[in-house]
Amino acid sequence: MLELAPKHMQPDSTAKPVEVILLTVIQAAAALQVSQRTIFNLIDRGELDTVRIGKSLRIHSDTLQAFARRGTRKNYAGVEVETLSPSGIVQPG
Questions:
Q1: May I ask the CATH architecture of the domain 19-77?
Q2: pTM of this prediction?
Q3: Residue pLDDT, tens place only, 13-47
Q4: 51: alpha, beta or left? (left if phi > 0; alpha if psi -120 to 50)
Q5: % of the chain residues with pLDDT over 90
Q6: Is the Cα torsion angle 63, 83, 28, 46 positive or negative in sign?
Q7: Integer Cα distance of 58 and 51 in angstroms
Q8: Strand ranges (E), 1-93
């Protein structure tokens, strides 16, 4: 028999979706449609700023959007202007 979590532990159906502010390397790579290695190379070269939370490395969504905009003007690695939705999904701009 399926048991439901106590009411205080069940998700609130009226809650608004949480905006993704900090992306993992995997999410950033997916958003830019590049490999994780490319993201690490960009970080190593200082082209992407990161936030460290404990041992976790994160990239601010605004940082990724700014990089995509800069990259397009320079035609860096074929990155075209696109915007990131709050979920981190790339949408043509």
A1: Orthogonal Bundle (1.10)
A2: 0.60
A3: 676 777 789 999 999 999 999 999 999 999 999 98
A4: beta
A5: 44
A6: negative
A7: 5
A8: 22-23, 51-53, 56-60, 82-84, 90-92
